[in-house]
Each structure stands twice: as structure tokens, then as C-alpha cells.
Amino acid sequence: MKKIILILNHVQAGMGSDENAQLAPSGKKTALGPGQTLNPLFKEHDAQIIATLFCGDQYYEGHQAEVQKKFIGFAKKFEADAVLCGPAMHYPYFGEMAASLTEALNKAGIPAAAAMSEENPAVEKYEKKVAIIKMPKKGGIGLNDSFKNMAAYVSALAHDEDVSNMQAMLF
């Protein structure tokens, strides 16, 4: 069973809304928030979410290097086979956090992908740099399919499979 780490912002991790946007990086050895929907889908691909890392997206904005170092360290410590940053939907701060963390993880040799909707400004900024899995805006049609795509794509990364046939899932 391949080990997946999920990275969320404070809202998606269930740690409150804007009042906790400055939440320092933390984590739990379980699937939080959308991870509870994603984990059964990952298990279909012989993978599972072993931990959820999270921090406030405003905190991340001001402490990117620190958070990247911590989350890369966590991923190595937990021997993660791949990391999913998001789903960030259309939230701009979370999209920036997810995409830049994906880039940092990839540079550190850890397979990672982000997930967000096309309305997210981070798509245009990062689509040529990192894998960004398409998803609808919050509440949009196609959410279940996008969750299946997240699990399939990130599981393929974890299993070190060729993902060139999965490009339709990405921006």
C-alpha cells in the first residue's frame, strides 16, 4: 500500500475559517476534510492517505520557505510515496499555497500534484511548472470525477507509473 500525504489549508482541514488564516503548520496522522472522501478512492489504487498536513494560507503567504521546509521534512519522515496539495478549488491563497508547495516537493524529489479549479489564479501561474489536476468550482458539476482523477493521478505518481496518458486530467 503506497503512502499518500494530503496538504490542506486551515479551512479544508476543518480548523476554522478566516480567523485561523494565520494558523502555523501542523498535521495529523489521518485523512482530514476532503481526505475522508478521497481515501476510499486511493485504496482502489493500492494507496492510502497516511497523514494530513495543514496550515493557514495567510500564514503560508508570509512564511513560504519555513512551511516548505517543514512539509518536505514531514513527507520524508513519513516516507510518503506521493503528495496531493489540495483540493484548493477556486480559493486564490490556497491555490498559490498548493501549487508552490507542489513545486517545492517536486524539486525535493517527492512526487506531488496540486488540484484546483480553472478560476484559481494559480492555474495560469503554475500550469507549465507543476501537475494541476482539474476540478470544478466549489459545488460545481464533476466534483466526484475530479476526486477520482486526483486519486488515480497521485496514486500513479506513488507507484512510479507513466502518467503521460493522464494529461487530460490536468491543466
SS field, number of helical segments: 6
Q: How many individual β-strands? A: 6
Strand content range = 15-25%
The ordered H/E elements are EEHEHHEHEHEH
Mean pLDDT: 96
Oligomeric description of these chains: single chain
Report the uncertain regions: none
Structural class: alpha/beta
Task: Give structural notes.
- The chain is an alpha/beta fold and 171 residues long.
- It has a 6-stranded mixed β-sheet with strand order 2-3-1-4-5-6, sandwiched between helices.
- The model has no long low-confidence stretch (mean pLDDT 96).
- Helix content is 39%, strand content 19%.
- The protein is built from 6 helices and 6 strands.
- Helix 1 crosses helix 6 and helix 3 (64-77) crosses helix 4.
Outline of the structure:
This protein is of the alpha/beta class. The chain is built from six helices and six strands, in the order E-E-H-E-H-H-E-H-E-H-E-H.
